[in-house]
């Protein structure tokens, strides 16, 4: 923690608070903001506090550090460590094979060849690759590519055999194994079927979510923390809520903290796999400190809209899997959510399709009927395609949706092609505004990069990667978007008393932008550069 006194001035200071919207200066002592106001007021607040370091912003803008309430830190590090097979870098299965062949040249002989970012809807073939096609990369070593959503992988035949997946292996609950017409596995592993990666060594999570926790050495896991953190800090993100923490992530975060590697703040959402153990030990939301804490329990209701496995009543036009599937039977899901609620946890549930969103609504209603609690802020992660009738229930039950505007930017057109015109209501912020439901932004990194400025642009414009607009009625204002990535995001993780706005008594977490978003055209918002990132009064980028 910094012990120096700091005085920021000379630029536009956007507080994101409901009181003073902007200020001339900010004074910091140690890790805390001690004054927000005029230069004279802030300077006076630091008198007698030792040497004052004045920081002239030189016309740049100071904002509270961005808060990302849904970002997978180690998975982000993993994505940057694997070959990039995302669109538009790759546009066909042939492109994927070419990229992986180049990756093979840089990979030690016999080691696994990996790529991240598959998006089948943007490929020329409009389908997933197969094991036979990945054999064109290598037949004598494992090859694995992960979907951009993290909800499925495709592997070559070598790795299928290594994982013990053959025609006699059944589909798991909450997942599926892709198959050729003759019934043999075709290398495609959906949702809970990804547990096969961890059965020999690693974290097995069962039907509690897609297994993104690839087995690795402790040294490599620390590297994933470092790489993921670097991407967040250079984007001005000072706090994340990691929405899928297992033993592997918790141990890695603690190790990084012990070695002074961890700079940012992490609120952990522990996967529901561990709910019984946490209950027996008496844990609940809020355990920990300002840097590393347990925030909530993470549940999964369904799969992914991007991969075609979310549970939609309308079904899909581009898949034989018409409605996706649920991770739990409705009564079992309700039982888990009610138990977490009763124990004192906030819950955050991945629910994309309306059928899955209904499970959350029913579970929260049952929880409050059985064990009333105030201001719990149970959340629906993504809340991709709710039915309009569900919006009133979400409002009345005070459920917080946490969507990702970049998903509309990256995948919106594919969702519309897959589900029809009601795909325009993907991440329906307009409906949330109509019912006074909180507006929260996040990235779901690495599904989208932890780039708040791109997310803010996407939320304000509803533009897509292809240059079109999806769901213009769901546009929000620049102020709503900025607050959605700062103070409203902090509220989503119950941390608004310490972060999310520039106010006296809060932690000195800041991002300095080279331009004021309000003085920039909307189209130029994604080009605004992060000049500096500060956490607890220390410059970390």
By secondary-structure content and strand pairing, the structural class works out as alpha/beta
| Beginning-to-end CA distance, first to last residue | 15 Å
What fold name goes in the CATH topology slot of the largest domain?
TIM Barrel
Task: Give the count of structural domains.
Answer: 3
Radius of gyration: 23 Å
Mean pLDDT: 96
Q: Portion of residues in helices?
A: 25-40%
InterPro entries: Amidohydro_3, Metal-dep_hydrolase_composite, Metal_Hydrolase, YtcJ-like
Keywords: Hydrolase
GO molecular function: hydrolase activity, acting on carbon-nitrogen (but not peptide) bonds
Organism: Salicibibacter cibarius
Q: Explain this structure to me?
A:
The chain is of the alpha/beta class and 541 residues long. It has 3 domains: 1-65 and 501-540, Roll (Urease, subunit C, domain 1), CATH 2.30.40.10; 87-147 and 151-203, Diaminopimelate Epimerase, Chain A, domain 1 (Roll); 219-499, TIM Barrel (Alpha-Beta Barrel), CATH 3.20.20.140. Helices cover 29% and strands 22% of the residues. The protein has 16 helices and 21 strands. Strands 1, 2, 3, 4, 5, 19, 20 and 21 form an 8-stranded mixed β-sheet that branches. A 7-stranded parallel β-sheet has the order 6-13-14-15-16-17-18. Strands 7-8-9-10-12-11 form a 6-stranded mixed β-sheet, with helices on both faces. Helix 2 crosses helix 6 (218-233), helix 6 packs across helix 7 (247-258) and helix 9 crosses helix 10. The chain is globular and about 80 Å long. The two termini are 15 Å apart. It comes from Salicibibacter cibarius. It holds the Pfam family Amidohydro_3. InterPro entries: Amidohydro_3 (IPR013108), Metal-dep_hydrolase_composite (IPR011059), Metal_Hydrolase (IPR032466), YtcJ-like (IPR033932).
